Amino acid sequence: MAMPQRYVTDPRSGFCRANSTFFTKRNPLNLPANPSLDVTTFISSQPHRGTTAFIDAATGHRLSFSDLWRAVDRVADCLHHEIGIRRGDVVLILSPNSVYIPVVYLSVLSLGAVVTTANTLNTAGEISRQISDSNPTLAFTTRQLAPKLPAGISVVLTDDVEERTRGVDVVGILSEMMKKEPSGKRVRDRVNQEDTAAMLYSSGTTGQSKGVISSHGNLIAYVARKISEVSLPDEILICTVPMFHTFGLLNFALATVATGSTAVILRRFELDDMMAAVEKYKATALTLAPPVLVAMINGAEKIKRKYDLSSLRTVRSGGAPLSKEATEGFLEKYPTVVILQAYALTESNGGGAFTETVEESRRYGAAGKLTCDVEARIMDPNSGRALGINQTGELWLKGPTIAKGYFKNQEATNETINSEGWLKTGDLCYIDEDGFVFVVDRLKELIKYKGYQVPPAELEALLIIHPDIVDAAVIPFPDKEAGQYPMAYVARKLESNLSEKQVIDFISKQVAPYKKIRKVAFINSIPKSVSGKTLRKDLIKLATSKL
């Protein structure tokens, strides 16, 4: 965001003492002034030299930009004139990754209808609760997933089927809609940037999942930022995340289309499938959660023997802080690849912090500098006082990507976004003298041991560098004397006989006494959200169920 002229900021950190605000050091964001603009129209108006928009990693099927926009026009026409979708109607997408999911997103958004997505792994009960909350008019899904939907909702099937699915009200098949010539009746509702575009349900790592309301203006701001950041327009990216997740929607269904990049779509994530796709399609960039990055380090010899990764230039990591040890370990194994980190929330629509250059990536442990679309404050969670450089408190963000609030939940909205538009991230952070953001931990997840505060992320970063540990999570375990103490859930390598005592000793040598892990349980895999965040609430429930 552009810094107000009346304020003087520190040239290194971007901190302004007059209002205790950190301003971004990035170039200012160029946003469209027209208030009557939907995100699809904004994306389609961006010039680029790209030819292939999407590739199906499994089949090699390609969707060109010209075919993509032709399909968007046809699907939007069918939705409007045949099914009756109008501005403000909610449309649910329950589907695995596909080269055609971006067609659905762009079509729905062009009409001013609202996109909501559901995790394909969710149970019928969980999906029913989301549908009851969001009240969609229509659902896009596959024949296999359709039975998870409650009766009464109209469905467009995203896969070709020879026979209708029993008990499902099928009103269209996507492939047929993409073949129909537009009716020529182009009169549609006027869409404004303030209108709701998406209602994505946050992962709920610490509580009940909530529908995050984002406007067309929020999504336009994200896309505009990605356009300003693109230095390599010929990027070939592997879509390693589900498209029902906020990053899958924002980055792979919207931003790559605006920049002219090519996205190779993995239907589901498998490490070997991802590596094979990098080799086959000469991919230049990957986006990974830290555990996948650690898996690439541990399996580096086998991976490099089996796959040609010479095209790979960049790995972007997000979802959790990446330790110095993991970063250095990766660069040692893959010296020609740059690691860039990023920090954002569903509620910030990509706004937050990121590293952009090799030089910035050398600031180990940092999430990066503020993105060009936000300003930040560090707030003392106890006194509510705004803090300064190198002082740790809750990170607050403000800018054009910050969501409007939570659907039908004014109380949660008021708790999270204040009257001035500041988003309270719930993350404990500090910003250093050069403007780098460091994420210490989730504020609500700090372990309170005898009055001391222990950040689980710090202990997890140490655990995953142990040669016998594949992944780990640290949670608070209730204790009458201490209040809580750190307990670790550890996923060992298959052949490992690592013991509880060895894990405890490994950590105790590296941390202050109050941070020591005092209990260890071994588990096959650590439960994660789709964005790679550890679901500590699930582990807390497991650990305390036997009390």
UniProtKB/TrEMBL annotation:
Cofactor(s) the record lists: Mg(2+)
Annotated GO molecular function terms are: ATP binding; CoA-ligase activity
Recorded GO cellular component terms are:
peroxisome
Keyword RNA-binding carried by entry: no
Keywords, sorted A to Z: ATP-binding, Ligase, Magnesium, Nucleotide-binding
Q: Residues in domain AMP-binding enzyme C-terminal? A: 458-533
Fetch the InterPro entries from UniProt: AMP-bd_C (IPR025110), AMP-bd_C_sf (IPR045851), AMP-binding_CS (IPR020845), AMP-dep_synth/lig_dom (IPR000873), ANL_N_sf (IPR042099)
Which Pfam families does this one have? AMP-binding (PF00501), AMP-binding_C (PF13193)
**CDD domains per UniProt:** 4CL (cd05904)
The chain positions of domain AMP-dependent synthetase/ligase read 48-407
What the record says about family reads:
Belongs to the ATP-dependent AMP-binding enzyme family.
What this protein is called in its record is Uncharacterized protein
Instruction: State the organism of origin.
Output: Eutrema salsugineum (Saltwater cress)
